[in-house]
Specification:
- With 363 residues, the protein is α/β, with parallel strands linked by helices.
- The chain has a seven-stranded mixed sheet with strand order 1-11-10-7-6-2-3, with helices on both faces. The protein has a three-stranded antiparallel sheet with strand order 9-8-13, with no helix packed on it. The protein has a three-stranded antiparallel sheet with strand order 12-14-15.
- It is globular.
- It starts with 5 loop residues before the first helix and ends in a 7-residue tail after the last helix.
- The C terminus is likely disordered.
Length: 363
């Protein structure tokens, strides 16, 4: 049942296989995976790491656990992912090389890494980010926690950076109740991740520890659940993609309602299906839609408060991120469970139709 059991190793091998990476190290959560990935990638106190403004807060928190600082970068308007053009603007316009360090002129701190998130089951546009990382000597830590099963130009998420992280939290496409994974092709980083996540134990009999480590390992019981869940991943992806297809087809003709879509270079999982409700065009705000749906027993949820507005990260010198603001004000996630039946999907759509004044749902 403990962290030493055989299922942990089996689960690690299977995730490495799925993501096409050499090494995988299981962790207690996706957040723990991010913390350790940043440490093994060499992020140090007072370094800066670029994080998209529109994401769940965990990656920014993980940067702070390293006593480093997140720099929030706006997302692009089409697929809502970290915008490579904004990254380029920041690196070219707001940073300079000084004594071999890439320095953010506004803070005087060293810029060390990019931490793109594959948001909502959709990959980030990784190639231009990797190109920038190469040009500016940065490490890419991929937060693939929401997107297991998605691919970018045929490559699995998890293989798009130097090191990547997954989450198996209860709301993820594959769950172990709680859990995470670090994947990388870098043998030394994988070994160090295993060391740091297991209390940095140097001598297991006499309990000698040369460093302060963490109790971040996944248990064998959870890993066994993970192995079973992974067998169902293709079916889970198909169920979510079916919901997305039906939602997109139905919502397409509604004025002011725009579904989240995948790029032609992406095969996403639609982990959460989201749509924009533009009040100026559909006559009702996203939050009013959310409340009306709730009254009809259908749960819809907004995305996360953009991180440049997060009180928790107000000390991080945040700058404006208008695209993230605009998406967050208008977007709602609709029911996206893999267990949805077509009757339930129809009910969701009929309720949205009733609220936005459109009738005749057939799927
Ligand atoms: C983008 C992102 N990063 C990190 C995490 C953290 O994962 P966990 O909840 O397993 O710590 C999550 C989700 O929970 C997430 O959505």
């Amino acid at each position: 049942v403990s962290t030493a059991g055989a299922f942990v190793t089996e689960f690690e091998h299977r995730v490495a296989d799925i993501t096409g990476t050499r090494y995988a190290v299981a962790t207690a959560s996706g957040t723990a995976a991010l913390h350790i990935a940043l440490l093994v990638a060499g992020v140090e106190a007072d370094d800066e790491v670029l994080v998209p403004a529109l994401t769940f807060i965990a990656p920014a928190n993980a940067v702070r656990y390293c006593n480093a600082w997140p720099v929030f970068v706006d997302v692009e308007a089409e697929y809502w992912q970290m915008d490579p053009n904004r990254v380029a603007d920041f690196l070219r316009g707001e940073c300079r090389w000084r004594d071999g360090r890439l320095v953010n002129l506004a803070t005087g701190r060293s810029v060390r890494a990019l931490l793109p998130v594959d948001l909502l089951g959709h990959p980030v546009d990784a190639d231009p980010l990797r190109e920038l990382a190469r040009e500016f000597g940065l490490i890419v830590v991929e937060d693939a926690t929401e997107s297991l099963g998605a691919t970018y130009k045929g490559r699995a998420v998890g293989s798009l950076g130097d090191v990547a992280c997954f989450s198996f939290n209860g709301n993820k496409i594959v769950t172990t109740g709680g859990g995470g994974m670090i994947v990388t092709d870098n043998a030394a980083w994988a070994e160090r991740a295993r060391y740091l996540t297991t209390q940095a134990k140097d001598e297991p009999v006499e309990y000698v520890h040369k460093e302060v480590g963490f109790n971040y390992r996944l248990t064998n019981v959870q890993a066994a659940l993970g192995c079973a869940q992974l067998e169902r991943l293709p079916g889970f992806v198909e169920a979510k993609r079916r919901s997305a297809r039906l939602y997109q087809d139905f919502l397409a003709p509604l004025a002011g309602v725009t579904s989240f879509r995948e790029a032609e270079w992406a095969h996403g999982t639609y982990w959460l299906f989201a749509a924009i409700f533009d009040e100026a065009k559909c006559g009702i705000s996203s939050r009013a839609v959310m409340h009306a749906l709730k009254e009809h027993g259908v749960e819809a949820r907004p995305l996360w408060q953009p991180l440049h507005r997060s009180p928790a990260h107000s000390a991080s010198n945040p700058t404006a991120c208008p695209v993230a603001d605009c998406i967050q004000a208008r977007a709602l996630c609709l029911p996206s469970s893999v267990n949805l039946t077509d009757d339930q999907r129809t009910r969701v759509l009929e309720t949205v139709a009733g609220i936005t004044g459109t009738a005749n749902v057939s799927i």
